[in-house]
Amino acid sequence: MPKPQKPLPIEIRVITPDFADQLGELQKLVFPTLTEDELFSAANYRRHIEIFPDGQYMAVLRHPDGERVVGACSAIRQHFDFDHIQHKFADLTDNGWLSTHAPDGEWLYGIDMAIHPSYRRRRLATRLYRVRANVVQRLNLRGEIIGGMMPGYHRFKQKLSLEEYVQQVAAGEVKDPTLTAQMKQGFSLRGVLYDHITDPRSNNAAALLVRENPNYVETSLADLPDVP
Questions:
Q1: Which one is the CATH code of 10-214: 3.40.50.12780, 1.20.950.20, 3.40.630.30, 3.40.50.720?
Q2: 52-124-60-14 Cα dihedral, nearest 10 degrees
Q3: Strand, helix or coil for residue 209
Q4: How far apart are alpha carbons 47 and 42 in whole angstroms?
Q5: Distance (Å, rounded) from C-alpha 18 to C-alpha 211?
């Protein structure tokens, strides 16, 4: 049996400008298939925290040689039409600048989850997803939406369609390195996003996943049912 990993001194923090360069490098390491328009640069990160600081978090390792970013996630608020789900990642993020953020959006849209390859299997993604869930609760949002990449699909391309693959992952019949982990966080499948993001492993598709807020409280009169 492998030896259990010792806990590391890693803190979850709101992203700050002094870590922007490290965050930009982490993006290139974690997402090698993405185009320049899809990757977040240091300048993008500095802009993100100006637009919506509540949605930007990082995992920082306190190292003797200095603090290092080993994980990060970004999110915006959105109004989302579940009757028309197709969209491109670059359009959703305005090529990384997040001008698409809707301050009154009912949903938190998680646009990335980046964990350094050397620090995976240490529950960092779980900790970051927990922070996002807390944001959803605190802001009283309907829930969280993500476009889950499907790096495992390339092993099944010859025998399963994208739709069959995501359904089997959702049913627990097939394991995907990303989707399976996200579903364990409470996300459910809502559909396939075609030509969504540059990833040849999944024919550039992603899975639309949703984690609803069970404690959401209606706040708009338009949402209230008629009273006789």
A1: 3.40.630.30
A2: 20
A3: strand
A4: 9
A5: 32
What is the average pLDDT across 69-89?
A: 98
- DSSP string computed for 18-82: GGHHHHHHHHHHH-TT--TTTS--HHHHHHHHHH-GGG-EEEEEEETTEEEEEEEEEEEEE---T
Euclidean distance between CA atoms 41 and 28, whole angstroms: 9
Going by C-alpha positions, the residue among 180, 178, 160, 177 that lies closest to residue 169 is 180
For 137, other C-beta atoms within 10 Å of its C-beta total 13
pLDDT recorded at residue 224 = 60
pTM over 0.85, yes/no:
yes
The full set of domain ranges for the chain reads: 10-214
Q: Per-residue confidence at 63, pLDDT binned at 50, 70, 90?
A: confident
DSSP string, 73-114: EEEEEE---TTS----HHHHTTTTT-TT--TT-SEEEEEEEE
Q: Which pLDDT score, from 0 to 100, does residue 226 have? A: 67
pLDDT digits (tens, 9 = 90+) for 17-29: 999 999 999 999 9
Distance of CA 85 to the CA centre of its chain: 16
